[in-house]
Amino acid sequence: MDSVALIELCHRLGVPYLDSCIEPWAGGYFDSLLTPTQRSNYGQRELALAVNRGHWPHRPTCVVTHGMNPGLISHFTKRALLNMASDLGLRHPVPAQREDWARLSMSLGVRVIHDAERDFQRSAHPKEPGEFVNTWSTGAFVGEGSQPAELGWGTHEKALPACGRRHATGGQAAIYLERPGVSVRVRSWTPLQGPYHGFLITHSESISIADYLTLREGARVVYRPTVHYAYHPCDDAVMSIFEYCGNGYVLQPRSRLLRDDIVSGTDELGILLCGNPKGVYWYGSRLTIEQTRALAPYNNATTLQTSAGVLGGLIWAIENPGRGVVEPDTMDHDRIMQIAEPYLGTMVGVWDTWTPLQGRERLFPEEIDRSDPWQFKNVMVD
Fold first, then answer.
1. What's the average model confidence in pLDDT over 63-85?
2. Which distant-in-sequence residues (6+ apart) come within 8 Å of 265 by Cβ?
3. FRET partner for 283 with CA separation of 20 to 30 A, picked from 82, 164, 196, 338?
4. What is the pLDDT of residue 323?
């Protein structure tokens, strides 16, 4: 079902709405007759936000893209910014509006933001040939992974990547790559994993966080961070992706959702803020399979983290009627976290000195930009 069509129906009927991803009609992610913008989350987001400009009989609250990521990850971002300011002794009032959040981010030197996730969950039954294995919906993962890779594009970036393109319309907070997300890898970091290569899968938060943290002087954009997903799924899912790509992006005949056969593991999912002279700061959820089963049987860590975001968004929508189409970034992060946090395991904030240049100066010095570690050129794996 097309999400925007459902939102418009809700505005005609006066029915509140929530989703965890803005979806096109079936087949929309793969339709070669559509432009990359029409197939992108950027384009879908523009259509959803345009509903607020229409004339409707009702204006129910319609919360879009509110699961874990997208969703809670936007609230993690705000909490991480406040934690950084506190740790650094920066005197700054709690932001009251989006421009204040953008100024706080700029004052902290945040140039790059990764939605940094490492899924360590492991099954008793390894992936077999011809099988796609994942800890959440295979269809949804393959769908978004087949879209153009997308990222919020920061003001510090010197040049577009060779496959990078700007959108012809809309708010211009993001770009896309002329490659599907499952074929693009980026360098990132989480506390348990350390440095890793993740997939740059398109996600709505890459666009909405970048847009929300944009600071303008008149019509000129003076600050915006680069924002994107850096996803390392469970190891069986990584092997499934490699097989899918190697088979010409034709989905395997069988799929398996990992749940009861998971024997161990944690989904470590958080926001990584990069650019401050002290180092990078990661803030997020560590949820083990054991904690998950104690909290909510018939889930794994990934599905419970997402469900916690849905629950938080649902209650907020009930408490805040008549708001129209609302993104996570404009919602009350303290209230949402109050609802969701009991289901997220251990919340962790960690500093580190990692940069995407580490280990590469010696092996491949010609491929890096030493003048600025946080250029996307240094983050993207060629």
1. 98
2. 119, 120, 121, 122, 234, 288, 289, 301
3. 164
4. 96
The reported pLDDT for the residue numbered 362 is 67
28 vs 26: CA distance, rounded Å: 6
How far the first Cα of the chain sits from its last, in Å, is: 36
Burial of 12 (0-12, 13-18, 19+ CB in 10 A): exposed
In one-letter notation, the amino acid at residue 119 is: D
Q: Where are the domains of the chain?
A: 69-301+337-381
DSSP codes of every residue in 209-225: HHHHT-EEETTEEEE--
Coil, helix or strand for 65?
coil
Q: How many residues does the chain have?
A: 382
The pLDDT value recorded for residue 30 is: 75
CA distances from residue 299 to 9, 64, 127, 148, 262 in whole angstroms, order as listed: 31, 23, 20, 30, 10
The CATH code belonging to domain 69-301+337-381 is 3.30.360.30
Could you give the CA distance from residue 204 to residue 199 in angstroms, rounded to a whole number? 15
Question: Helix or strand or coil: residue 154?
Answer: coil
pLDDT at 211 over 70: yes
Label residue 290 by pLDDT band (50, 70, 90). very high
User: What's the mean pLDDT in 113-119?
Assistant: 98
Rg over CA atoms, the chain: 20
SS3 category, 72: helix
If you average pLDDT over residues 340-352, what whole number do you get? Answer: 98
pLDDT category at 344 given cuts 50, 70, 90 is very high
d(C-alpha 94, C-alpha 357), whole Å? 33
Report pLDDT for 26. Answer: 84
- The type of residue at 185 is R
Among candidate residues 239, 168, 162, the one with its CA nearest the CA of residue 199: 239
Which residue from 44, 41, 2 is spatially nearest to 25, judged by alpha carbons?
2
Of 187, 184, 145, 142, the closest CA to residue 163 belongs to 184
Kind and range of the H or E run holding 117 = strand 112-119
Query: What pLDDT was estimated at residue 42?
Result: 94
